[in-house]
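Predicting structure from sequence has reshaped protein science. With that in mind, we have picked out one protein's residues alongside their backbone shape tokens:
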Amino acid sequence: MKDFKEEIAGCLTQAIDLSKEELQDMIEKPKDETKGDYALPCFRFAKQFGKSPMLIAEEIKEKITISRYRY
């Protein structure tokens, strides 16, 4: 079975200066399943970057390249 947290963390290393392992530990499953299968709570970065979590999420989205594999 494919480890999707590992795949997601690999994509996120392009946008966030953290190791793949650190990012894997931060990725979680949302309590509300309608919000998606996995989530990276960006409020953890708000103070560090001095930006709102929503703005951080948008910046991450713009920087990542989705894997060439289709699921």
Notes: The chain has one domain: 4-63. The chain has a mean pLDDT of 87. Residues 17 and 24 are 13 Å apart (CA to CA). Residues 4-63 form one domain.
